[in-house]
């Protein structure tokens, strides 16, 4: 997965399907595939990708609110690391991977995700 400037296309829309308390499977509207950590990796730097939905822990994410913001941490349930834009890059095509969660996410904002959109589609 990579970040791009918002364009409103289906490739940038996701459906959040509840899988538990604050736990979701995140499905891309265009591809129908689920976000997952590649190979169910647990190491820092493991890529966040789209893959065929299979209901695995590597395809389930905890949405953890970040206090004082409208943002959330996306935490894969198999590793409980945090999804982040690698290198805190701001350009298009910057890759998304998991990394150790920061003690203060407001210091490392590349781990804070803003979710917006119609109910069910964020």
Characterise this structure.
The protein is 0% helix and 39% strand. The chain has strands spanning 2-3, 14-20, 23-28, 34-37, 48-51, 60-65, 71-76, 82-85, 94-99, 113-114. A hairpin with a 2-residue loop joins strand 2 and strand 3. It is globular, with a radius of gyration of 13 Å. This is Ricin B lectin domain-containing protein.
Order of helices and strands: EEEEEEEEEE
Beta content: 35-45%
Total DSSP helices:
0
Kindly state the number of beta strands.
10
Pfam families: RicinB_lectin_2
Domain Ricin B lectin: 11-98
Protein name: Ricin B lectin domain-containing protein
Organism: Nonomuraea thailandensis
Structure at a glance:
With 122 residues, this protein is mainly beta. Helix content is 0%, strand content 39%.
